[in-house]
Fold this protein.
Amino acid sequence: LTGLHFLSTWFPQAASSRAEQVDGPFFAVYGAAIVALVLTVGLAIVFIRLLRPREDLPDEVSGQTRVMLRGIWVLGAAGLAALILFAGFSDHVSQTLSPFSATRIDVTTRQGDWDFTYPNGHVADTLHVPTQKPVALTLTSEDVIQSLSIPAFRVNQAILPGRITEAWFAATDTGTFVLRSNIFSGDDYAKMNTAVVAQTDLEFEAWLRDVSDIFKGRTYAEVGEMLYTRQGCVTCHSVDGTKLIGPSFLDVYGHQFKTVDGQTVTADDAYIRESILTPNVSVIEGYQPVMTPYAGILEDREIEALTAWLKTLSSLGGTDDVATDGQEEADE
Ligand code: HEC
């Protein structure tokens, strides 16, 4: 039935596994409508020409014929509706329930903005997907009703605030396609247009690895500052000298502190590393041992980055910050 595409020149490219499931029934209904049109108009013209008013004809068809005609009409229409329902039901179910093995991407939207969060935590404003693989999107809206529409994949799902909805597809063709909201959402609606980039599985993995590397094109100190907010240090440590749950990061590096068991420690590279990985081993006087241990959460170079950044906040820090690309080569 998708061979009927020539009937519509405005149809978008079919680039996902569900295109056939959507286009098939569409063209079936389209074809049926054309047949019905030709029949009705054609028969009307034929009847107008053939059936002139004649004197000898009875005024009405007999009561029995009328009941029979109505019966055929009602049962026929109901049968047709049932046929369409049953034919479409299994496709409806398979389009509603995403396969368990799908790559999951969280989609959060607000007026004028999309956020796509990948399984490794990377957030982007365009949707990248691997081809030949099911991809399931978990959709939420932070303000108004939106819809996620990817015409080339035949995906169109409303997104309601306060409710999590799902949509899934398997892209079949690589390329860049339009992604937009089909529901007018007020301010900045024009900005709801973005792109879906469908890549081969290998290209997709490489892209994700590349964009997720926060060290790329940044100095260690810049990465350290990003980690400060991303890893939640910001909730307990200020940078302006204010005492929060933990001591402020202002002037920590290189300075001396008293611990609760009466020792004096100098916050050098090794001590800072220890404070981040196993904070409760030596606790600074005046504070509770409540800091989360980051062992197993932060990598070595991320700790180096945090340390490099702490140096920039301290009068005893020195300025040995280097671009990460050069540093990596020097390290190895
Ligand atoms: C839940 C609150 C909390 C979070 C989150 C937190 N810290 Fe702490 N941190 C503390 C507290 C409380 C202390 C002081 C007690 C101690 O030494 O364990 C402290 C102490 C420290 C020290 C030693 C400070 C000094 O004066 O010698 C360093 C360094 C440090 N934190 C770094 C970090 C970094 C880096 C992060 C984020 C990756 C982080 N902290 C996240 C609460 C927190």
Summary: The two ends are 60 Å apart (CA to CA). The CA atoms of residues 187 and 197 lie 26 Å apart. The pocket of heme C is lined by residues 231-233, 235-237, 245-247, 252, 257, 267, 272, 275-276, 279-280, 283-284, 287-292, 294, 306 (CB under 6 Å).
